[in-house]
């Protein structure tokens, strides 16, 4: 069968590694059946006949990867930043998430969330829903229609939650989780289920045992929160006498990397043992700098994790973070790392613009397979950015334009977006 092949032309920028940023002025990136064929300064002879979409001197970058966000919290982004994590959850998050019992409400508000996601530079994401099966299926249906490719989690919560947002029993939690997985597998191809106990304090050991069984049956990835807040960590110690440190509250059940692809959000206070377990298990860290600051959790030592060779991606953690805009997350990652360096530990150098760009693309993208770069055989996720609104651009290199875009971008600067070769914006 004939291949579907086209090229995008423009000022191209992508990461090969943490320290290697590749740029091509007026280059071509070629898509063949949804996958990157190659990147060229001049269109090769054999591609002379293909369609070339010329984006002039706009920037062409890989789609961004949000490794951690909460769709139901989108309704109150930018509000209620006056409390620390555990009080914030009880006072604002749980009442907001309880509303997703109502399917009409879910369709309306998730519709707005997905609409914004499509217009953003994000192509892939790991998304928390709520405990509600129907609302989570609605979210997945909307993402699927929009052409996004995500992992979505129906949450498990059967303890330490208010009556109105607590699953009836571990058995019911497992039954609902299975029903949601079966339904979503029947209905969706691009948006897939991901096992999502909210965090250790929200789930009993019985649920964890059930989740491991489900994980083995369906081979699903796993996501949760880890070592975000000191009060939370002390609470986990009380709740899980078998765990010497937080990661063991997951690994005790076989749910911490290895044969269970895992994303852990935050990891602000991970000690040497936890770091070792993350490395052994190939666990992905979702660094969420804005959330670190907003719920006053602390600042994750990202430089240390990078030096240890751990997988680190970026997360917006909406609504711990106020925005889904990952350029803002990149800016916050740099700024937070500088404050940490100055105030906490001067041995851990601040992050640079190419480093946070890597984290937001290939770093997190690898969780999805070959995603987040324009190297050959990577899935063709591409975003077109128009930075012409920003004055004083004369003579800047592509790398300088990218750095500036991280600080000065606005929502509607994203002009087009392709996910696995399909145009979605
Ligand atoms: N830990 C458990 N639930 C949450 C949540 O919704 N947001 C954040 N930031 N941390 C959590
Ligand atoms: Fe979170």
Your description of this structure?
This protein is α/β, with parallel strands linked by helices and 425 residues long. The chain has helices at 85-98, 103-119, 133-146, 170-187, 205-218, 230-239, 248-251, 272-281, 289-294, 302-307, 326-343, 353-365, 398-408; strands at 5-17, 20-32, 35-40, 51-62, 64-70, 122-128, 149-153, 155-156, 192-193, 196-197, 222-226, 262-266, 284-287, 311-314, 382-385, 414-419, 422-423. β16 and β17 form a beta hairpin. α3 packs parallel to α4 (170-187), α4 runs parallel beside α5 and α11 crosses α12 (353-365). The radius of gyration is 21 Å and the shape is globular. The mean pLDDT is 98. Residues 68, 70, 225, 265, 317, 320 line the site of fe (iii) ion (FE).
Which architecture of the largest domain would the CATH scheme give at its second level?
Alpha-Beta Barrel
The main β sheet shows up as: 7 strands, mixed
Q: What is the first-to-last residue Cα distance?
A: 27 Å
Question: In percent, how much strand structure appears in the residues?
Answer: 15-25%
Uncertain regions spanning at least 5 consecutive residues: none
Small molecules bound? guanine, fe (iii) ion
Structural class: alpha/beta
Write down the overall geometry. globular
| Topology as a string of helices (H) and strands (E) | EEEEEHHEHEEHEEHEHHEHEHHEHHEHEE
Order of strands, widest sheet: 3-2-1-4-15-16-17
CATH topology of the largest domain: TIM Barrel
Radius of gyration: 21 Å
How many distinct beta strands? 17
